[in-house]
Amino acid sequence: MTDQSTERPNRRKIREGLVVSSGMDKTAVVAIVDRVRHRRYNKTVQRTSKFFVHDADNDLNVGDRVRIQETRPLSKRKRWRLVEILERAR
User: Distance (Å, rounded) from C-alpha 14 to C-alpha 33?
Assistant: First the structure.
């Protein structure tokens, strides 16, 4: 029997993306690019989603590659928080 009490079925989503805006105070906008197959034409299409991310230290810059995690609502549109900075912009 597996111990299911330690497993959490509803894990919080984790995404990786690029910072496209960091002009707001303690908030950055991260763009996530998903590549999906078109149902009819079978061509790969890029879909971009923008997420508002909580950046408490204001240390993100445009072009940084980051990992973000879903969290409770922090404001009207901000539902993600910064986990780590994977790569700094050059």
Answer: 14
Does 15 fall in a domain? no
Q: Residue 16, exposed/middle/buried by CB under 10 A (0-12, 13-18, 19+)?
A: middle
Q: Does 74 fall in a domain?
A: yes
Query: Does residue 53 sit in helix, strand or coil?
Result: strand
Residue 32: inside a domain, yes or no?
Answer: yes
Q: Which domain holds residue 77?
A: 23-87
Report the predicted TM-score, pTM, of the whole model to 2 decimal places: 0.83
Among 1, 30, 19, 34, smallest CA distance to 64 is for: 19
Reported as a single tens digit per residue, the pLDDT across 22-53 is 999 999 999 999 999 999 999 999 999 999 99
Using only the alpha carbons of the chain, give its radius of gyration: 16
Cβ count within 10 A of residue 17: 23
